[in-house]
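Troubleshooting: if your tokenizer reports a length mismatch, compare your output against this known-good record of 392 residues.
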Amino acid sequence: MSKGKSATIFAIFSFSFLVMAQGATSPALASIGQAFPKIDFSVVVLIATLPCLTTIPFSMIGGKLAGNIMTFRSVTIIGIILTIIGGTVPYFANSFVVILIMRAILGAGVGLISPIPSALIMNLFQGKDIENLMGYNSVIQNIGGIVFQLLGGALCVINWRSTFLAYLLAVISLIIVIFMLPEPPKVEKAKTEKVKMPGMVYVWSIIFLVYTLINYPMLTGMSSLIVDNKLGTAASAAMALTMFSIGGMLTGAIFGKIYHMATKYTIVIGTVLHAIGFVILIYGNSVFMFTVAATIVGMGFGLVVPAVIMYVGMPVPQSSQPFAISIALAFMSIGGFVSSFFFAFVEKTFNISSMRFPFVFGAVCLVIYSIVQSLFNLKTSKSELTGVNSRN
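Known-good structure output:
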């Protein structure tokens, strides 16, 4: 690999590292809830989920701006600066409202940068390099999730406020982007050209929304599941959530090979693994079992996310790839934001008190989806084969 190519990959990965930075506060939610006892815990959870809401419009804004109205580098720099401000200011805040406002700004920053790594990979590289780098990009994002979750959990032991200092890491990303991130060649479009997004972009985006909605209760509820059942501490929850990221790294590292062999079955493999992890969460009753479950769920997540991004980004013109990817990521963020409200509504409506209900619901949905997607793949494969035979 050439020196210039390596530097480009390093620069892209340096800020892709921040895409899962919201997770720094997940291990600290119980401690933050104790610091604000008059605030219902479902509202405290907004500290983790509110960034998902503001990520929605700003990911689409970033996808629309990058490479068209503004350079990729400029959008990225603005996004990182917002991430630093929104991430660290809560350390100094005494008001819960101020903390929520800053979390919203953090989400805006992450939203701006979230579609850019994948779009740059598809713009600057070709062939198998794209497949491999999409997997490695997932690995880097999971490493970011690990670092921020571990650092957030460790700093929370000192003081819940200290959790927010984890976002100072973004300063390093900012420096690297300013000096090293290249700009891809601008693709000129005719003034009258209007690219229409394929319907499958929205189909995959809706699937992404439901998938994230199902997954989020594990990320936001692991701390309460462990602490409330007296199985461990916030640090234990942080370790379990870290293994979710490590699981994503394991499959992300070999995503290129899996995708090359399995192609449209890649997402099915991922959802089956995710379902297995949820089944372990349903029946597990120890930190060890929860950690194993989180690892397997992460392995599934590490296949599903880059696969969906590939399915969304590859069929559209190069100039539209950032926006197509941003649509998928926006739907993903909607799923993360509405997740806690959806499950709270269902549990209240049907008088469900079990903390593990979301995992039962999720496992059932994932199994059904895996069967339906497999049957659809078999049907399309058969149709393609019939078309080939008729031509011969």
